[in-house]
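fyi for ur records
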Amino acid sequence: MRTLDEQERLVLFLHYAAKSSPRLYRTLARMLPPLPETFELAARHALGSFSGLGEETRARMYEAAGDGFFERLEAWMDRRGVTVLLRDSEGYPALLSEIHDPPEALFVRGGLDADPLLPIAVIGARKSTEYGRGIARTFSRALAEQGATIVSGMASGIDAEAARGALEAGTRQLPTVAVLGSGIDVVYPKENEALYAEISERGAVVSEFWPGTRPSRENFPVRNRIMSGLSRGVVVVEAGERSGTSITAGYAHDEGREVFAVPGRLTDPQSAGTNRMIQNGEAKPVFSISDILDELTFLCGMAPKTVIAGAPKEIRLSSLPQEQQAVCRVLLLGENDADSIAEQTGLSTGLLNSALTAMTFSGIMKQLPGRVYALDSLKTKLLEE
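which gave:
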């Protein structure tokens, strides 16, 4: 079991007292004497000097200064496989340290790469459409196959589908990072427990909130700055006019990250925000993952590596969502029109349109005149079991 040193205890003491707020943390830190010799001396000084603080903050300080507080935390982290990264410690994400208000402490479950090659946040509405969920999953899988790390908030809807798509890539470790708006041990929503477990195993789950913190409305905008901070670019799949997704895109703008948006139907409220971002020049429109990769690889000084360059990428048919598998089985027999595909697959209009759009965007198939579709063998090689 790893034991926290004196400096780590001091940082976590202030982090706990500040309820994970970097601003309050800095206020408390300024009240401490320079270079306190031990955590015990610093805590004693803090409890005797911070007379102007609110009752809740002082109560949390007394609790954290109590006997056994950090021993219990160390034992809990050991049992749960949780580590903690401090802002000035080795392993803290390099991009995150550049933002205006980086978290002083970050609880991590899984393996977090401090400097991934191409981290990209894929975010969107909780109340999403079939079209949006299909795009998020397909884009994320294709991006992960090209070496990107997909960052999301593990919320229901677009975020969850983005994480699932990255995990489906199956080509590498650490394909996705989930940033929680609750404690590292609190899964929200509950329906994503299996997803949480898989991300913890193959990627990383992170949170700046103290273990046991319940999700609350005010936590999520705070969490969003970490999602954009961990990423070189943010892809917005669906968003209402006023939403947390728009807040994340705003953070990305403020921190100099690239923002992309997937156009949506004019009649869908879930696409009002993305369409407006594109109209106002706040986001670059995305029609394929090439639009994302070409921009970000250029900015990162990397050679462009997109799904349309070089040899066709290989995709196992079984790794695709069920509706896309059904469409592929029809098209493996030859090109076909949308009505015939619908008849042969039995898919609803909504599911079929979502599948066709996602598969076209990801390079699995191409659209020919007259709403006729065919597999795109120049971009993708399907591997049948």
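The first strand starts at residue 82 and ends at 86. thats all i got for now
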